[in-house]
Design a protein that fits this description.
Glutaredoxin, Glutathione_S-Trfase_N, 4-stranded mixed sheet, alpha+beta, Glutathione-S-Trfase_C_sf, GST N-terminal domain-containing protein, 2 domains, about 200 residues, Thioredoxin-like_sf, Glutathione S-transferase Yfyf (Class Pi), Chain A, domain 2, 4 strands
């Protein structure tokens, strides 16, 4: 049976897990891995030491969320949602940029002070660039996303909701987060879909 190595906060791991669930990939199991401390089980299958990583029955390991999502469409029992459409790929890429900027902000904080809560890094030129990416990216996602989800959750929907949730998780109450009524409506409309309900991040 395929095994997904992930942690409970990574937005990239959530995208992969949500795609696998929504595609109805059979017999999926999940293993929590600690990517921050060179988890031996993770390093054994992914030399980069990053989550997510999907290990197939024959030992083949697939890393990176978009590649795992592509595999999910190929092997899942649910009909594919059309993830190859340029518009879906464009929106998904935008959402991944928001996720990456958020993660890199936390990494920067960790490097500068050793503390995710210390915001000194945010005032640096790189920190300001990361902030701008999150703000502009969320605003553009809100303008472009289809707030009415389909029967299947396409990659744009999965990535956009994941980006919104991850920013809320890591920067709670931040006054710089833009209003995103369409994204929030989409999140509410899909909250009880198994792909989102069963992958909610927590600290």
């Amino acid at each position: 049976m395929p095994t997904l190595l992930k942690n409970n906060t990574s937005p990239f791991a959530r995208i992969a897990h949500a795609a696998l669930i929504d595609a109805a990939v059979p017999d999926l199991t999940v293993q929590i891995a600690d990517q921050w401390n060179d988890d031996p089980a993770l390093l054994a299958v992914n030399s980069a030491g990053r989550v997510p990583c999907l290990v197939l029955d024959d030992g083949t390991a697939i890393a990176e969320c978009l590649l795992i999502a592509r595999h999910a469409d190929n092997v899942g029992e649910a009909p594919p949602p059309g993830n190859d459409a340029p518009q879906i790929l464009s929106i998904a890429g935008l959402a991944l940029g928001v996720c990456d900027a958020a993660v890199q902000t936390l990494v920067g904080r960790k490097i500068v002070s050793g503390n995710f809560a210390d915001t000194a890094f945010d005032a640096s030129p790189i920190g300001r660039k990361r902030r701008r990416t999150m703000v502009d990216g969320l605003a553009e996602l809100d303008a472009r996303i289809d707030a009415a989800p389909g029967e299947r959750l396409d990659l744009a929907t999965i990535a956009a909701v994941t980006a919104l949730d991850y920013v809320a998780l890591r920067f709670p109450g931040a006054d710089w987060v833009p209003d995103t009524p369409r994204l929030e409506a989409l999140r509410a409309a899909t909250a009880e879909r198994p792909a989102f309900r069963d992958t909610r991040p927590f600290l």
